[in-house]
Amino acid sequence: MFEELEKKLSKVEERNKTEQKEMQSTYDQLLADQVRLIRLRLRGPAIEPLNRTKPMIADAKDMLTRYDGEMVELYSLVSELMLTKQWFLTDGVAWVVNLVHQSPELEKVVADLVNSVNAVGVNDGIKQGFQAAKSSARSVEEVLGYYEGASDTLDAGERISVGYKAEE
Question: Euclidean distance between the first and final Cα of the chain, in Å?
């Protein structure tokens, strides 16, 4: 709806611009006619072209008034929609999340969804790790962080912790 109103607003603005150009050219022509008439100081039938343009000027003023009203109405609708959009993005989403958290049924569904997403993510990560390890042409010693004596250090640590537990 917001995009539709913006399109209407742009169409009205385009029409307004073209009509303003037409009115400006009409005004320029009328001004030139008036200057010419004043210079010639003619009376009577020479003023007739000027009288014929008065209805055109009145029509142009009516169009401007009508389109100004439409533009004010569209601007108010657009600003109202912008405020609604802003509320939805700031407070509305938080309100919906709060309602979900207050609902036991929906809270369980969301918790199950989060747990499922976590499980799928871990599973996919493990699969990708094994695939990367299989496709690697490097030996274990070339892997960054490889420590050859790690197994001995781990065994020694286990023996020490078992010894502390036995003393207690």
Answer: 73
Contact 45, 1 (CB under 8 A): no
Is residue 6 pLDDT above 70, yes or no?
A: yes
Q: Which residue has the tokens 């601007």?
A: 75
Cβ contact 51:30 at 8 Å: no
Determine the longest span between alpha carbons in the chain, in angstroms. Answer: 128
Tell me the pLDDT tens digit for each residue of 128-141. 776 776 676 566 66
Q: Please list, residue by residue across 121-151, b when 16 or more beta carbons sit within 10 angstroms of its beta carbon and e when fewer do.
A: eeeeeeeeeeeeeeeeeeeeeeeeeeeeeee
Q: What is the pTM of this model?
A: 0.32
